[in-house]
């Protein structure tokens, strides 16, 4: 039976959303490989929007709103399950050392205290904070290290026992009737025409009306999001029974260390911040670093027995803010990238996304956490793509031509939208390659002259430093150009799948963390270099399951194009004539059929030899062109690249303008009526 909502992930975010949706009447399924492996179990449970001193205003508001939800949220969970979540409004103390610049230091804090009185508000923090001088802070929390000269007290910050919370969420989900599918590996998200049509798992395909990606540090393996794992090691010690009273009753938030006391006499110490991918296990240096910092902050902790060591993976984004809200797929919602604040943000994330999914109600705050913020800062910046156009009112040049100026000019009927592939937007409709150039410099100049935003790169040739590909990775500015790894040289589907995976890793190494594009080539024929339709379809089906945006290079076969689109490919790329031949458009009839029927972009690839042929392909209605040999093998490659750019734009404008109808007879250009006769 199909669920209303299927949630991928088993952490606190996933469970909180599932429970909120279920309470509002939705039928919910949660799929998780291992609920115990989620970052929830590796956290410390600090609820610290004040002590964290979050500089981003929207993030500060999100965290504060969530903190204020916590008392009622945990109370309701405890009523459902009879499990104590360990919510404790204990406040957080942030001590400051003599040699530390955190906070404003003693001198500045004293000055602020004298100006405003005891209570102050820290910069970039909406939570009230109090400065405690050295004598006061040591009285307020005995046992602090002698180097502590003062500190900030955040009375509204709190904590929760993250493991108890996870148990309560799991129990509540079960009691409410959320369907839990644990021990199942999600292998891919099946997409067709900007819709998720199923989730491929180790036990088969699961279907729902709506999907939520809440897979934490593993999200990027399923969808092209800039989320990476950041490892954190932690440990706990136990206050011996012979110590009559708890020596610590509030969280200590120090310099690169935090110490979190629990009412059951455990003390949690964390956490390292390690950009090592999904490398598991505790390490001696990690634990040693934590212990040294903890002992400096609260020396008596060195006498308590170590109880447990563990590690986990935080889901981090480039700006360390979560990704929340809609996605390129109309029925997929994203809830990931919470980094250090997943526990804190669970209640507000659940509420906002339930409003969005069930009521189509978008909180204005969600705009600040939309996935598109990464695209607008990267290689999708508009580039020079349009030629000079003169009208009676103004001159539109390659420097200033855009849609808004079209609307204000005599060309206002030419409405167009940018090229969109797999949810990513590009202004240029010309893609180029990197092979066959006389030199790296020639290639660099040609890419610039072409105005392209997508450049295809042969993964195998780069990895092997094949002639003409030495230093290619460093030759282009990958912050401005979107890499399209291709599987050139692969003769079987299995080879292509393996090389595609390498290409995704290569893109990540060059800073494109969210790049899941691959130009799929399966070519067993060494003479004519014609693609294998069966192998291409087989490879495409598997790569789509693995979350790739697949751009398949194919013969101009309308039926194959349809099957590839149905399999979830992001584009289809029919050849105009054999690759590298320069024969021009030899398959126009079939390409025209593909264009008329495709619901994904159609990119004419291979065989174009001259700008006139490029313009012709665009006039037919192609969405984009991929041209390499015609540019690289020209006598003046940069000049030809510029010519191809102009031709691509001219062809697109001609297509939008609509050509005159063909007639079998002549029609005079000047009318015969109204003429002067003798």
UniProtKB/TrEMBL annotation:
Give the residue ranges for region: Disordered.
103-127
Its Enzyme Commission number? 2.8.1.10
Q: Which InterPro entries match?
A: Aldolase_TIM (IPR013785), FAD-dep_OxRdtase (IPR006076), FAD/NAD-bd_sf (IPR036188), Gly_oxidase_ThiO (IPR012727), Thiazole_synthase_ThiG (IPR033983), ThiG (IPR008867)
Q: Which residues take part in binding 1-deoxy-D-xylulose 5-phosphate? A: 580, 606-607, 628-629
List, alphabetically, the Gene3D superfamilies matched. Aldolase class I, D-Amino Acid Oxidase, subunit A, domain 2, FAD/NAD(P)-binding domain
Q: What Pfam family does this protein match (any one)?
A: ThiG
Q: Identify the residues that the record assigns to the FAD dependent oxidoreductase domain, covering every copy.
A: 4-356
Q: Name one GO cellular component term.
A: cytoplasm
Question: Its catalytic activity?
Answer: [ThiS sulfur-carrier protein]-C-terminal-Gly-aminoethanethioate + 2-iminoacetate + 1-deoxy-D-xylulose 5-phosphate = [ThiS sulfur-carrier protein]-C-terminal Gly-Gly + 2-[(2R,5Z)-2-carboxy-4-methylthiazol-5(2H)-ylidene]ethyl phosphate + 2 H2O + H(+); glycine + O2 + H2O = glyoxylate + H2O2 + NH4(+)
Q: What Gene Ontology molecular-function terms does this entry list? A: flavin adenine dinucleotide binding; glycine oxidase activity; thiazole synthase activity
Q: What is the role of the protein in this entry?
A: Catalyzes the rearrangement of 1-deoxy-D-xylulose 5-phosphate (DXP) to produce the thiazole phosphate moiety of thiamine. Sulfur is provided by the thiocarboxylate moiety of the carrier protein ThiS. In vitro, sulfur can be provided by H(2)S.
Known partners and oligomeric status: Homotetramer. Forms heterodimers with either ThiH or ThiS.
* PANTHER family reported in the protein's UniProt record: THIAZOLE SYNTHASE
Family statement: Belongs to the ThiG family.
- Know the name of this protein? Thiazole synthase
User: What is the native source organism of this protein?
Assistant: Brasilonema sennae CENA114
Task: State the encoding gene.
Answer: thiO
């Amino acid at each position: 039976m199909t669920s209303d909502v299927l949630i991928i992930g088993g952490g606190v975010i996933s469970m909180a959303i599932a429970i909120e949706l279920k309470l509002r009447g939705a039928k919910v399924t949660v799929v998780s490989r291992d609920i115990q492996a989620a970052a929830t179990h590796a956290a410390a449970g600090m609820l610290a929007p004040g002590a964290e001193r979050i500089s981003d205003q929207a993030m500060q508001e999100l965290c504060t709103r969530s903190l204020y939800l916590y008392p009622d949220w945990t109370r309701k969970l405890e009523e459902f399950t009879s499990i104590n979540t360990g919510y404790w409004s204990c406040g957080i103390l942030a001590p400051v050392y003599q040699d530390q610049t955190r906070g404003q230091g003693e001198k500045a804090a004293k000055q602020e205290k004298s100006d405003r009185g005891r209570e102050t508000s820290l910069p970039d923090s909406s939570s009230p904070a109090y400065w405690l001088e050295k004598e006061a802070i040591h009285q307020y929390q005995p046992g602090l290290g002698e180097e502590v000269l003062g500190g900030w007290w955040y009375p509204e910050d709190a904590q929760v026992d993250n493991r108890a919370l996870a148990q309560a969420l799991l129990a509540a989900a079960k009691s409410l009737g959320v369907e839990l599918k644990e021990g199942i590996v999600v292998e891919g998200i099946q997409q067709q025409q900007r819709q998720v049509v199923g989730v491929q798992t180790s036990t088969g395909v699961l279907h729902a009306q709506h999907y939520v990606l809440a897979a934490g540090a593993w999200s990027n393996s399923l969808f092209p999001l800039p989320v990476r794992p950041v490892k954190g090691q932690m440990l706990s010690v136990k206050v011996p029974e012979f110590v009559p009273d708890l020596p610590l009753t509030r969280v200590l938030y120090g310099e690169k260390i935090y110490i979190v006391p629990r009412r059951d006499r455990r003390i949690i110490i964390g956490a390292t911040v390690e950009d090592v991918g999904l490398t598991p296990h505790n390490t001696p240096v990690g634990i040693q670093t934590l212990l040294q910092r903890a002992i400096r902050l609260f020396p008596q902790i060195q006498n308590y027995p170590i109880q447990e060591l563990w590690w986990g993976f935080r889901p981090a984004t480039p700006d360390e803010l979560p990704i929340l809200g809609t996605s390129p797929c109309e029925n997929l919602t994203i809830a990931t990238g919470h980094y250090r604040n997943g526990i804190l943000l669970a209640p507000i994330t659940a509420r906002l996304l339930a409003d969005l999914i069930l009521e189509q109600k978008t909180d204005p705050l969600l705009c600040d956490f939309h996935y598109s913020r990464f695209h607008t800062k990267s290689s999708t910046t508009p580039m020079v793509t349009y030629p000079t156009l003169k009208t009676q009112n103004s001159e539109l040049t390659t420097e200033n031509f855009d849609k808004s100026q079209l609307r204000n000019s005599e060309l206002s009927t030419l409405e167009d939208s940018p090229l969109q592939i797999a949810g990513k937007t590009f202004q240029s409709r010309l893609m180029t390659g990197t092979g066959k150039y006389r030199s790296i410099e020639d290639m660099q100049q040609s890419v610039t002259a072409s105005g392209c935003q997508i450049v295809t790169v042969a993964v195998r040739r780069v990895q092997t430093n094949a002639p003409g590909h030495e230093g290619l990775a460093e030759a282009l500015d990958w912050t401005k150009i979107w890499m399209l790894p291709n599987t050139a040289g692969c003769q079987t589907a299995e080879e292509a799948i393996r090389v595609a995976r390498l290409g995704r890793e290569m893109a990540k190494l060059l800073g494109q963390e969210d790049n899941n594009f691959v130009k799929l080539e399966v070519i067993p024929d060494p003479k004519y270099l014609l693609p294998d339709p069966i192998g291409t379809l087989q490879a495409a089906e598997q790569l789509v399951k693995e979350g790739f945006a697949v751009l398949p290079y194919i013969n101009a076969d309308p039926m194959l194009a349809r099957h590839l689109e149905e399999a979830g490919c992001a584009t289809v790329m029919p050849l105009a004539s054999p690759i590298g031949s320069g024969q021009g458009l030899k398959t126009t009839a079939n390409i025209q059929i593909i264009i008329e029927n495709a619901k994904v972009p159609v990119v004419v690839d291979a065989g174009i030899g001259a700008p006139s042929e490029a313009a012709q392909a665009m006039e037919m209605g192609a969405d984009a062109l991929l041209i390499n040999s015609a540019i690289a093998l020209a006598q003046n490659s940069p000049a030809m690249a510029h010519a191809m750019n102009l031709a691509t734009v001219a062809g697109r404008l001609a297509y939008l303008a609509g050509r005159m109808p063909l007639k079998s007879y002549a029609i005079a250009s000047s009318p015969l009526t109204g003429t002067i006769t003798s």
